Every structure is written in C-alpha cells, then in structure tokens.
C-alpha cells in the first residue's frame, strides 16, 4: 500500500548538537510554516510534574485542563510564558528522563500530530522522521562530526576552546550519541527515505538553503 505524502510537513532529526532546532526554525520562517520544537513539549511536561508534584499518570490526566500554546520554541501555559524557565538544566534533565516513559511518549505523539495536522509545519526532534511525521514530504537527518558539534557547543557557552575542553565536550557528545542510538524507546536512527546532510563544512544559512531547495524539488514547483 502506497503511503500518502503530506506536502505541508518537513521533519528534521539528528544527533544532539547538530543544529536541527536552529535550522528547523529558520526553514519554517522562510517558508511561512509553523515551527514546533518537540523537545519543548517534554520540558513543559516535566515543568508541570515538578511544579505540582505529579506522577506521569497525573500529568496525563490533568494536562488538558491547562491552556497551553506551543509556538516554535515559545511555551505559554495559562497565559504565562515559561520558555525561559524551561531552559533550566534540571528541567532539561528531567524532560530527558520522562521522555523514556512509553505512556508519556504516546501522549506527546498525539499532541505533536494534532499540531502537525492543523497547519503547514517544520518539526524537529527525536523520532520525528520515523514515528511522528512518517508521511512528511521531506525528511532530513542533520548531522556533524562529534568534534565539530563540540566546538559549536563550546562557543555557544562562551568557553575557552582548548585541547582539554574540546576533548571533554567531544567525549560527552560521543557518549550521548551512543546512549541515543542504543536506547530501547525512540532510538536515534536514519530512516531509509531521509536525506542526510552533513553540516561540518556548511554554515547555518547553507544548510537552510539546501533544505529549502530539497523541498522545492520534492514539491515540484517554484516556491518564493
């Protein structure tokens, strides 16, 4: 049975630190599409769990009582923008932990697909190409060497780039890659119909331009 391709969905996956969120946001802006950072959904989940001292089951039972809006990387709950709060390292760590739970993963999937079915969307995150948007017209696996991702991360944190910091961050990224690839739920993987883009020698603009070009090719029309 031939699957029905959705021409208004672009899915971007890739290892940690590959720049997929930055690229996805810019692609969405260029095309006039909605952008959804799926990682923010799990962070919002954990934020509510932490604030209310809930279990995962309690979160799922009560989440629809909140007025939540996910707009790109901005998250508003009951008219309060909590986006900056979600950048806290403890929230990030907690979100990563609860994302391993099958129940919360399934609940997040329903929310993600609901957003994707409402409007043209560019979405990034784990299992976006394989599970969340399996019929997207364009699936991209954005990658870069562990060393290059380490350099970018060091610069992002305004740390000194030297042999010691480069070795430390490279090792951490390689360990993260290994964990993500071998975990049982939503492992890091390249689906067979994804286009792999190695950004080692590319600027962010070049990556965005390449994805836009690929989208035009898939669409078969000129897209200003």
Write a structural description.
With 224 residues, this protein is an alpha/beta fold. The protein starts with 5 loop residues before the first strand and ends in a 5-residue tail after the last helix. The protein folds into 2 domains: 122 residues, P-loop containing nucleotide triphosphate hydrolases (Rossmann fold); 82 residues, 3-Layer(aba) Sandwich (Rossmann fold). The chain is built from 9 helices and 8 strands. 50% of the residues lie in helices and 17% in strands. Strand 3 and strand 4 form a beta hairpin. Helix 1 crosses helix 9, helix 2 crosses helix 4 and helix 7 packs across helix 8. The strands form 2 sheets. The chain has a 5-stranded parallel sheet with strand order 2-6-1-7-8, with helices on both faces. It has a 3-stranded antiparallel sheet with strand order 3-4-5, covered by helices on one side. It is found in: Cytoplasm. This is Cytidylate kinase.
């Amino acid at each position: 049975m031939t699957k029905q391709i959705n021409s208004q969905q672009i899915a971007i996956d890739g290892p940690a630190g590959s720049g997929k969120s930055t690229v996805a946001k810019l692609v969405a802006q260029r095309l006039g599409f909605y952008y959804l950072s799926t990682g923010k959904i799990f962070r919002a989940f954990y934020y509510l769990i932490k604030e209310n001292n809930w279990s995962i089951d309690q979160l799922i039972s009560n989440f629809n009582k909140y007025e939540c809006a996910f707009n790109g990387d901005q998250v508003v709950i009951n008219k309060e923008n909590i986006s900056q709060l979600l950048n806290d390292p403890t929230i990030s760590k907690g979100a990563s932990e609860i994302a391993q739970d099958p129940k919360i993963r399934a609940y997040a999937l329903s929310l993600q697909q609901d957003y994707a079915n409402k409007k043209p969307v560019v979405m990034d995150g784990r299992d976006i190409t394989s599970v969340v948007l399996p019929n997207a017209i364009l699936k991209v696996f954005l990658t870069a060497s562990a060393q290059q991702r380490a350099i970018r991360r060091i610069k992002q944190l305004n740390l000194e780039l030297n042999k010691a910091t480069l070795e430390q961050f490279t090792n951490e990224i390689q360990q993260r890659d290994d964990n993500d690839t071998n975990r049982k739920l939503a492992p890091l993987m390249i689906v067979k119909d994804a286009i792999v883009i190695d950004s080692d020698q590319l600027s962010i603009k070049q990556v965005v331009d390449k994805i836009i070009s690929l989208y035009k090719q898939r669409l078969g029309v000129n897209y200003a």
